[in-house]
Structure to design on (240 residues):
């Protein structure tokens, strides 16, 4: 079973998922459109769309975004298991009829608590979630209005729309379950000057991410396993 992974930039790769998904039986085909690689017209077994510094509407600067939104919309309509992460979640939101805007509270960054809502009970990806689960965040844009039919699954203290399910087999998460502490510190290093100017203690953010490493893995490996189980189930259901 092969899952297409859309990577938007070199320092926002699959992270933990590069180990967790193969261990759960999936092969990941990473497509890097920022390097000129062509997006597929459709995907067969599964789709994961990763994060990146782009805004979901910045088509002029990131010319592959319209094709990515079309691919997401097609996968959701075809009930192909799909997971959108941060920018990927925002692209899913736009592609499926919702609204993405700049967050009114500014940048959400660092290790933050994620809380499940009652609708998460029994969910294949987030049914395991416990209140206050740690998640790495780094975003200014938010899914302001969810797509029609979306079911909100998890929330947080700064921005309420942290995870939702759409249709039979699509999920969007605003946070970064895939991000290792090393990936996070590469982001803070790249933005260090701006973060410091805005009053963020970059060293403290990095230390908190490293301290949270085992809790991050404990919180989000079940999400990866759950996604792999959905891919397997959908594949068995649709196999001729």
């Amino acid at each position: 079973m092969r899952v297409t992974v859309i990577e938007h930039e070199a320092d926002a790769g699959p992270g933990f998922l590069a180990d967790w998904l193969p261990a759960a039986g999936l092969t990941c085909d990473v497509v890097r459109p920022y390097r000129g690689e062509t997006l597929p017209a459709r995907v067969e077994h599964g789709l994961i769309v990763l994060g990146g510094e782009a805004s979901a509407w910045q088509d002029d600067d990131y010319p592959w975004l319209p094709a990515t939104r079309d691919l997401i919309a097609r996968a959701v309509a075809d009930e192909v298991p799909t997971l959108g992460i941060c920018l990927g979640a925002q692209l899913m939101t736009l592609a499926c009829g919702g609204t993405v805007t700049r967050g009114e509270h500014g940048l959400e960054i660092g290790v933050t608590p994620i809380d499940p809502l009652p609708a998460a009970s029994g969910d294949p990806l987030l049914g395991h979630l416990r209140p206050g689960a740690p998640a790495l965040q780094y975003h200014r844009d938010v899914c302001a209005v969810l797509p029609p039919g979306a079911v909100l699954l998890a929330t947080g203290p700064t921005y309420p729309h942290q995870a939702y399910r759409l249709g039979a087999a699509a999920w969007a998460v605003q946070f970064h379950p895939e991000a290792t502490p090393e990936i996070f510190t590469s982001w803070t290093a790249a933005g260090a000057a701006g973060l410091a100017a805005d009053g963020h203690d970059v060293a403290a953010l990095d230390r908190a991410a490293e301290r949270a490493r085992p809790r991050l893995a404990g919180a989000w490996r079940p999400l990866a396993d759950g996604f792999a189980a959905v891919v397997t189930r959908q594949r068995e259901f649709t196999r001729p």
